[in-house]
Amino acid sequence: MQLNFLWRWAIVELTATSTTPHLDAELLIADALGLTRAQLYSQPEAQCLSADQQRSIQDIVKRRKNGEPMAYLRGEQEFWSLTLKVDERVLIPRPETELLVELLLKHCPPQKNIKLAELGTGSGAIALALASERPNWKIVASDFSVEALQLASENLQRHGLSNVELRHGDWFQVFGTYEYFDVIVSNPPYLGWGDPHLSSELSLAFEPKTALIAGKNGLEDLEKIIQQARAYLPQSGQLFLEHGSEQASMVTQLFKKYGYQAIQSYADLAGHLRVTSGKWH
Ligand SMILES: C[S@@+](CC[C@H](N)C(=O)[O-])C[C@H]1O[C@@H](n2cnc3c(N)ncnc32)[C@H](O)[C@@H]1O
Fold first, then answer.
1. Which of the ends of the chain has fewer CB neighbours closer than 10 A, N or C?
2. What's the confidence (pLDDT) of residue 46?
3. Could you tell me which of 184, 194, 206, 177 has the C-alpha nearest to residue 64?
4. Rounded distance from Cα 234 to ligand 1 centre (Å)
5. Is any atom of ligand 1 closer than 6 Å to the C-beta of 124?
C-alpha cells in the first residue's frame, strides 16, 4: 500500500476522537517508519509500505482512536525545556504545571543554595526542570510509586542531572525528623472520586488513578501536605501547591487553617488560579 493512502485513512480514523487528527497521524506514522516529519512529506506518493509497516501503523492509529494519549504512544512528552520519557507508570506532565516551575524560579533567588523537596514527582518533570535551571539547588524528589521512581530515574540519567535525589515513600515519611527544606512543592492528586473530568476526558482513563484521585472531594492529599509540611519548613519556608482550577479558595482556607502566612494564588495562562503558596512562620 502507498503511504499517502494510509496517511489519509489515518486522518479520517482519528477525526472522531482527536482534536488534532492531522498532526497525530503525521507524528504516529513518522515514528512508525523511523522518519522525521520533513522526510514523511518529501515523497508520500512514491513510498510503498511493507505489510509489517502497514500493520504497525494501523495498530497504533487504532490505539489513538480509542483515546490513548499521544505521549504514551510516542513514549515522550515535552516539559519546560526537557524531553521526558513517559509511559503508563506516570501521569503525563501538563503544560499548566510549568506555572509551578516559573513561580519557583521567580520567587527563589538564583544565587541562594536552596534546599527543595518535591512530593509526588511522577516522571520527575518539576524536579528535573528546576534542577536543569538551578544546578546549585539541592533537590529531593519523592513518590510512593516504585514504578514512577524508576521512570524518574531514567529521566534523570537521560538529562545527566546530578542535583536531584529520589526517595521512595508516602508523602512525608521519606524525610528525617530534623530535615528542613527552604521550599516544598507538590502537584498532588486533586480530583474527587466522582469528578466529571474522569468520565469526560478519555485520556484520563489511561493514566494511573493514584496520580489523579484524592478522596471524595479531591482535597485529601492537599490538606495532608499543607498540615504536615509545617514540620519540615524552617522559619519563612514556603509551600507551593498546584490544585484544580476550582479549588483555589478551598486550598487558601486550608493554608489559613494550618497557620500559614502571605498566602497567594496564581493564575495560569488561561487565567485559572492553579497554584497557591504560603509561608510558614
Ligand atoms: C498529579 S501526579 C504529579 C506528577 C508530577 N509531579 C507532575 O506534575 O507531572 C501526583 C503524583 O503523586 C504521587 N502520589 C500519590 N499519592 C502519594 C503519596 N501518598 N505519597 C507520595 N506520592 C504520592 C503519584 O504517584 C503521582 O506521581
1. C
2. 67
3. 206
4. 24
5. no
Q: Is the pTM of this model over 0.90?
A: yes
Q: Residue 29: helix, strand or coil by DSSP?
A: helix
pLDDT digits (tens, 9 = 90+) for 145-185: 999 999 999 999 999 999 999 999 999 999 998 999 999 99
Question: pLDDT value at position 264?
Answer: 98
Q: What pLDDT does 41 receive?
A: 86
Q: For 194, which DSSP code?
A: T
> Which of 76, 91, 126, when mutated, tests ligand 1's pocket best, judged by the most ligand atoms within 8 Å of its CB?
91
pLDDT in the model for residue 45:
65
Q: Cβ(187) to ligand 1 under 6 A?
A: yes
* Contact of 139 with 119, CB cutoff 8 Å: no
**Whether 69 contacts 88, CB under 8 Å:** no
Using the atom order of ligand 1, give the atom closest to the CA of residue 92: 9
